[in-house]
């Protein structure tokens, strides 16, 4: 459907969600109550699941995104498994609909770039669902470090194995969130990658310790795994003048500053807004669809984070190949 003309600006945007699993159900729930949006339908080949969600939310259920597109929508949320993002997003874009693609944007960088190019050619909005950026604690950290000279960032994202394993490991599934945060906090590209990954229990990597350097000189570290019995998500940022600690689950953000020669320092808890990150993300997406402005997480940014995540896996393989050649020599 064409972008709103000024005369029809107040019309609610007609939106659908494809892939009504864990994430898609959350998108649908939030959209159903978001002012300015009309949740027209949800799609899933598991029609019983789509039907259940549609009944609760009072919308239609169809079996796939082709069925959604027949309903004349302004935008579609793609929350199908990652390996389907590319084909589904291209169909949606080619139908002239704006699209929010869940993270990671695609399975490969080439696929991600094709999605970006298609959206640009069609003049539709493309946003990637890096929802952590809209976590109020993350936003409080970002505000606290604005204008400061950043030195290092350490992020921990650990927990137990997910109930249903997808076909990706922790780097693509979890670390990609934090790669996006590192790029966003620093406003800079990651130019050096030093990954260590291992598969302790699963076929894919389930532990990763990843180190980075950004073009602006910031050092960053991600500790992620599926082998911790409890969930933890923390961000620590060292700047020249302060140290900021954010707990992304309890949403407590603290900064230490005024370091004195006797070892004492000042500390304060920072105000953190109350908001559901997914609601904020979708509100920004719908605003961008309505205005034609750049969404807060562009397709290009989604591809850049995916590229770094994939390089963490390929760099390890290349390093192993180099070591083998050295041993053989
Ligand atoms: N932003 C986040 O924090 C976050 C969190 C979880 C998942 N995700 C992303 O969301 C996506 C889905 O993950 P999930 O955990 O909800 O998975 P899930 O397995 O719970 O749900 C996927 C759903 O897609 C459906 N599906 C399969 N083929 C389909 C098709 N052709 N068209 C439409 N639907 C189809 C499945 O039947 C299932 O209901 C993944 O890309 C994942 O990386 C993002």
TrEMBL record:
Residues of the Gfo/Idh/MocA-like oxidoreductase N-terminal domain: 13-130
A single GO molecular function, which one? nucleotide binding
Cross-referenced Gene3D superfamilies: Dihydrodipicolinate Reductase, domain 2, NAD(P)-binding Rossmann-like Domain
Q: Which domain of life is it from?
A: Bacteria
Q: Which stretches are transmembrane?
A: none
- Occurrences of domain GFO/IDH/MocA-like oxidoreductase (ranges): 167-237
Name of the featured protein: Oxidoreductase
Organism encoding this protein = Azorhizobium caulinodans (strain ATCC 43989 / DSM 5975 / JCM 20966 / LMG 6465 / NBRC 14845 / NCIMB 13405 / ORS 571)
